[in-house]
Design brief:
Immunoglobulin-like, elongated, 6 helices, about 30% strand, mainly beta, about 475 residues, 4-stranded antiparallel sheet, single chain
Amino acid sequence: MYFVRARTLFLIALFLFPTLNFAGIPPITLTLQNGATTTLANGEMGAANYLVSLNPRVPGSLNLTLAGGIPAGVGQITSQPSACSTASPVCTSLFRLSPGGSCCLMLQLNGSNMTKGINSIAPIVGTTPLPSTYSTQAAPLAVSVTAAPAASTLSVSVSNLALSVNNLSLNAQLTGSPRVIIISNVGSQTVTGLSVNFPTWPAGTTATDNCGNTLAPGNSCTITITPGANPTTNCNTGLVPSPGVVTVSATNAASVQTNVVVLSYGCIYQGGFIYSVDDTTPNTDSILGKIAAVTDTVPGTTAPAAGLPDWGGDGTDVSPGGSTYENNPVGANNGSVNTATIISVLGCSLPNAACSCNALSVNAAGTSSCSSPSLCYTGWYLPAICELGPFGIACTAGSTNIQEQLFVANPPIPGLGLVDTGYYFSSTEYSGTPTHYAWYEVFFTPGGGGQAFDGPKDFSLGARCSRALTP
């Protein structure tokens, strides 16, 4: 009689006080088990399992059920072996727990029937009959559902690949390192009828592959391109090179492509003329290096005089510690860092050469200004003195520059002008009088070389901007 009365009082308490707990623990708890699915594709199956426990201080057993909190595509499994970490039975659709008892609530996630995107799973377990007198809801579990890949799907590691010519007689930078394209089967079925189609390469360039006729799910094959001494067609003509297109096709998968260019000095790439090449990047990526803008941002003058835009900040040393001086490795070689320093100190309220470069945004040909959503190339800077021309031991060993690679080696084509004759500012300050003087380069008659001088910051000289290539 006492037990019946106590249980009756407990049920009354649950009805009147649904937030009742015992020793700080609610009557029912749901604990998410390890291994819950958080990401699945359309068509895939996943699981989320919870240990449902009844507080041992509860004076009697409770009839319980899954009362809600699960989205479309998620259902309860009641017939499989328990997937919880403890030796608890599986929770059925209607189950009864004694004080201290537990069972495993197993949920199956069907990606085909779930909403694409983020799904919130937070099961509610409550007393029966419904609506529950008392219920507990688990903390939300976010499950991301993505579109399923096609049964057979090819992926390509890179859509655009740039290589250096192999021309050590021109410069030691031009090592012509072979580079690879990786083709992968990211679908669930074997790709059949696989074929690799190569373009007509520049003379000397070759390509091989190990792809075969089929490609199993999860497997990859490799295409290797080995450049020769000749660049892609249109280099050095003032036009963007026409890439060779490598196409990989199959009978049961959509084809994939990679645009390939073989580049040398004077080729237009990413909006400018290449004058420096870094062929030491990973062979799965493109070369890096530096380019000069296709045209002057500020025309190079042949009669220097005071005016705007000038170097800026006459009377101001932008780096009292000497970081922009010619006797500092950064100041002599890194125009990008110098430009950032100049702008941070002087700002751009008055027109100056560094700000003119910083504002530049061009299309792939470098011939016109550009703005989003078009593909634009930004990140331009005023070159350091060693990027404009040779400057002795101050320059990084093996480095190349605009004067030697674009002005002497590739004299301007009439009407094009890889580099024009005239006076051009560098972003390097003159250490002797940094408050008033900076270094500049004079380009003499086309093909005739150049020379570095220090001169007044308040003169209006030319600006031929530079930019680092991006992967």
